[in-house]
Amino acid sequence: MGAGHAHRLYLPGRSPVHRLPPQCKLVAVLVFVLAVVATPRERIWAFAAYALLLAAVAAVARVPYRLVLRRTAIELPFVAFALLMPFVATGERVHWLGLSLSEAGLWGAWNILAKGTLGVVASILLAATTEPRLLLLGVERLRMPALIVQIAAFMLRYADVVAEEMRRMRIARASRGFEARDLRDARVLARSLGALFLRSYERGERVHLAMVSRGYEGRMPVLRDVGATAAHWTAAAALPAAALIAAVAWSVS
């Protein structure tokens, strides 16, 4: 894939987790999340074991816990939904601090919070220890269709370009005294959105013509090999293997 593309979610480092090939980390996170999802919600101690495993990965990768906690704010909408479930769900009720709460709703809220948070933290650690371009190379190594990988690569590269274009258009509107106050201003915003679409489309055509003129034939050049050895796969298997052991241990207890 082409030149590097820094991303604000990536935390540069030289830890053993950083050095693992991306396809190994992708498979490890996928298996770990599947183990978490398959665990019955009543196995509370199993979820505590999963959290300790992720904390150990963060420590090995030297990812600050404060950074991880700050980035988990992305799941706040799901947290809000989970907090409503004990009040709106039906079934047997329990009383706590003068509140009447649904027992099924409490279990449902716990299920969403525990599994969702563990999945989010695993994704945060993956993004913090793997460059986005390497993630795409790892996905390609896992036999994802090349066309889909290239679409994702271009989206990653030019998302910031489009965002910067939006910022310049907003500054231009503000310099002319425009400030959106009510629905009457929707026409101006709609025109701006249309102009942004046209500019992005034209930019895409120019980029494609430039690539074709440089010999592009439907596949981006690979500038870094991300091959994985048996040792890499063994190291990456530590997290999902420990999670599966914890899941099995608690299921038979």
Automatic annotation (TrEMBL):
* Places the protein is found: Cell membrane
Pfam families with a match to the protein in the record: CbiQ (PF02361)
- Keyword entries, A-Z: Cell membrane, Membrane, Transmembrane, Transmembrane helix
Which InterPro entries does this chain map to? ABC/ECF_trnsptr_transmembrane (IPR003339), ECF_CbiQ (IPR012809), ECF_transporter_component (IPR051611)
Q: Which GO terms describe its biological process?
A: cobalt ion transport
For membrane topology, the record states:
Multi-pass membrane protein
- The reply on keyword Transmembrane is yes
Per the UniProt record, which residue ranges are transmembrane? Answer: 44-65, 72-89, 109-130, 230-252
Q: Which GO terms describe its cellular component?
A: ATP-binding cassette (ABC) transporter complex
The UniProt entry lists the main location of this chain as membrane
Record-linked NCBIfam families: ECF_T_CbiQ (TIGR02454)
The molecule here is called Cobalt ECF transporter T component CbiQ
Q: Which organism is it from?
A: Actinomadura rubrobrunea
